Amino acid sequence: MTKVTTLGQFIIEKQADFPYAKGELSRLLRDVGIAAKIVNREVNKAGLVNILGDTGTTNVQGEGQKKLDVYADEQFISALSSGGECCVVASEEHDECVSIKSEISRNAKYIVCIDPLDGSSNTDVNVSVGTIFSIYRRTAADGPVQLEEILQEGTKQVAAGYVIYGSSTMLVYTTGKGVNGFTLDPSIGEFCLSHPNMRIPKNGTIYSINEGNYVKFPQGVKDYIKYCQVEDKATSRPFTSRYIGSMAADIHRTLIKGGIFLYPTTSSHPDGKLRLMYECNPMAFIVEQAGGKATDGSGRILEIHPEHLHQRTPIFIGSTEMVDKVEEFFQAVDVAVPIPVTAAG
Ligand code: P6P
Predict the structure, then answer these.
(1) Can you list the domains of the chain with their CATH numbers?
(2) For residue 258, what pLDDT band results from cuts at 50, 70 and 90?
(3) I need a surface site. Which of 54, 76, 217, 226 has the fewest CB within 10 A?
């Protein structure tokens, strides 16, 4: 009979890893898990909502049916507010930070950056979507949270994780002591430890990029894509191309099977498309903790100094040897800016 370890049990068992946290971080991770279960229930019904039509339907509170990403945002903020450990939330769904005003959160020490439902447009076609979150500790002892307390480098994260709402729902997180994955068992409503101590393979044969943007990529990235497609048995090429268009799903596959996920700058997104604070930093923390690498083409994602909340960055993330290889191509040609591509391509 294998021992079932729930997320709650695991968090408490690992609490000893945090000298200063008197259960605060444990309670915060518990709150994230609660919201993830609530969002999972609605994501799984998304198809039904589309069948029933999304106007005129109301939820149990008699509210109009909400867009899923707005719903997810509300659920995570609500769970974090009632848990009492979070003082401010920086969410993709809000231009400004959301201060948590609940009385129970008066002395809260933690800041949460979150993409409540990343890739939400994929719910229309039943493709996996995800929640991505990053947790920082306040740098000031008390008083109103200042923006610079939120704009901390990724190396300062105390925890990071993602939820993937797919064929099964999983929560994967790190607190800087390795990466662990939990699968939701709907029969008991608990996330159960299913992927202890996750490690990403040092090398891989899957590259993941939206090749529809090929003509807009920097030359070095184009060169790398062509490198992946050359036949060479010694390096198991040509590699396989896999792109889901949902970051949590593409990174989850990369973490488990090895490979590389790339979202470079393009002429339409000169700073990259993906957000630093609540997509790239948490994923970089997780992948580095699992033995992989995450770079913006010239340096560690985690060492980027954030200038503003919704800042974007290019990202090359995954198996170390594959990220090293794309950096070679990228730096050989594109250290500065994308090179305008002539019609000849
Ligand atoms: P594109 C989803 O919209 C998202 O933010 C990430 O989840 C995903 O990796 C990326 O954008 C997909 O972007 O331009 O390929 O559709």
Answers:
(1) 7-195 (3.30.540.10), 206-334 (3.40.190.80)
(2) very high
(3) 226
